[in-house]
Write a structure and sequence with these properties.
The structure holds two protein chains of two kinds. Chain A is mainly α. Helices cover 80% and strands 0% of the residues of chain A. The N and C termini of chain B lie far apart (69 Å). Chain B is globular and about 90 Å long. The chains are: A mainly alpha, B alpha+beta.
């Protein structure tokens, strides 16, 4: 229960930061994607199930506020969370390389999926332009933000796991 | 044995594979449904309106306060100079105003003579503050802090500084989503003020950083439209009110078909530094009914 509340608050804070604070910290009009960081971080820290649920709700939030129809971002982020969850078995908290690699690949694929489904299908074919001006800068900025946000997510998760363990012991 | 079957004494959890499948189907159905209708809009918009929007308002207020303080420090000297200049301008304008007032008096008299009504009255407006921007980098959409409770509805026009910003595409109880005219998925029907030639102005992500909006399908048979011409919203749009300033033509080219022209417009609104906007609460349809 505590986990649910903490994660919900975490998602809302990140979403609000992303669409207000980071807007004024934008480099060349590009803002980082905190939702991807959260989704994939909880995906590889906690497994497929939590990854896909968190991805679903992160996406749904973007959908309600900014999407022209519901469910698109929810679907994309859900799959990203699920696939990141597959890497839960080879994840160690001490290792920073795997999280960084996973997050950058997630953000790149998110950008490419968004381009193909919402831009290419509207006959905007200049992929190289969109890749070098939108997708790649977003991924790089996201990685920079990950270096600050990921340790926070890791610490929150550790605290939650310790709390859950204590609670489980109390009941035994 | 199927993993879904519940064993005794074990807490029931749905395997993630099945959950993924169920949610995928749910998302697809919801996408298909909301593509045409907006049945889920009301409940969901209400929920996020009370959960997320207060946070956004708080942060926007804090951010606005901070940037105001820092700006104040920088700008005092500039403002003093500007004040001097503006005072001179006021003197000139007052003089001009008296002249115009005389003209208006004459105009009203002539109008009475011709028994013409005023064609475009003042629209009713509501001020609103921007509290959030698009969370992605693909479209130019923002959230304002007024909603249904303040009398706003979808498809109302939004202006700032005398120019068209966009229109409301979704409303919650205390927030509304505005899709701006520079957004890649937006199209506005406009016309040149001088010659009343129609054109289509469509947002483009590629030109967004250069501060221009492309236009096309301008039929200008007499070759009269030139750079610097004012472009306003046209009468034929069903969403946008007529005669709202969009911007000025910055470049114009003949299309390959030798019939229509296309080019770019510099918008009248500075979309990079937008803090407050005005929402016109008169709607195109309602205006026509009166």
């Amino acid at each position: 229960m505590l986990r649910k509340i903490v994660v919900t608050v975490f998602i809302i804070i990140c979403f609000v930061l992303q669409c207000s604070v980071f807007d004024s910290l934008a480099f060349a009009g590009i803002i980082p994607n905190l939702m991807i960081i959260l989704t994939s971080a909880f995906g590889f820290m906690r497994g497929e199930r939590e990854g896909l649920i968190i991805g679903f709700f992160c996406g749904l939030l973007s959908d309600i506020f900014f999407g022209s129809f519901l469910g698109f971002y929810a679907l994309v982020l859900m799959y990203i969370g699920y696939i990141n969850g597959k890497f839960c078995k080879i994840f160690y908290p001490e290792d920073i390389k795997l999280p960084l690699a996973l997050i950058i690949v997630s953000d790149l694929s998110y950008g490419i999926i968004c381009y193909v489904l919402t831009f290419m299908l509207r006959t905007r074919f200049q992929f190289t332009y969109y890749f070098t001006h939108i997708i790649l800068p977003e991924a790089l900025y996201t990685i920079v933000v990950t270096l600050f946000l990921y340790p926070v997510a890791l610490k929150v998760n550790k605290k939650l796991e310790a709390w859950e363990k204590r609670r489980a012991k109390k009941f035994v | 044995m199927s993993p879904v079957i519940k064993r005794k004494g074990e807490k029931f959890t749905l395997p993630s594979k099945y959950l993924l499948f169920i949610l995928t189907v749910l998302c697809t159905v919801v996408m298909l449904v909301t593509f045409g209708t907006d049945v889920f809009d009301r409940p969901l918009n209400t929920v996020v309106g009370y959960v997320v929007v207060p946070f956004q308002q708080g942060i926007a207020k804090l951010g606005g306060w901070l940037s105001n303080r820092s700006e104040e420090l920088v700008q005092i000297r500039i403002l003093l100079d500007e004040n001097m200049r503006l005072k001179e301008e006021i003197a000139a304008l007052t003089e001009e105003n008296t002249l115009l007032q005389q003209d208006k008096y004459e105009l009203n008299k002539l109008r009475e003579l011709f028994s013409l009504n005023e064609q475009y009255g003042e629209y009713n407006k509501v001020g609103a503050r921007i509290i959030g921007r698009d969370s992605g980098n693909w479209y130019s959409v923002f959230i304002i802090d007024k909603g249904e409770e303040d009398g706003l509805a979808a498809d109302m026009n939004v202006i700032a500084g005398g120019g068209l910003v966009g229109r409301i595409t979704s409303v919650g109880p205390n927030w509304a989503r505005v899709t701006s005219i520079i957004s890649d998925n937006s199209k506005v029907s406009g016309m040149t003020l001088s010659t009343e030639d129609n054109m289509i102005i469509s947002g483009d992500l590629k030109l967004m950083s250069s501060g221009c909006i492309p236009f096309g399908q301008l039929l200008d048979a007499q070759n009269k439209v030139k750079e610097g011409d004012k472009v306003v919203t046209s009468d034929i749009s069903d969403k946008f009110l007529p005669n709202i300033l969009i911007g000025y033509i910055s470049s114009i080219n003949m299309d390959a078909n030798n019939l229509t022209k296309s080019g770019q417009i510099v918008p009248a609104v500075d979309f990079e530094h937008l803090g407050e906007v005005l929402v016109i609460t008169d709607m195109k349809q309602a205006v026509e009914e009166n």
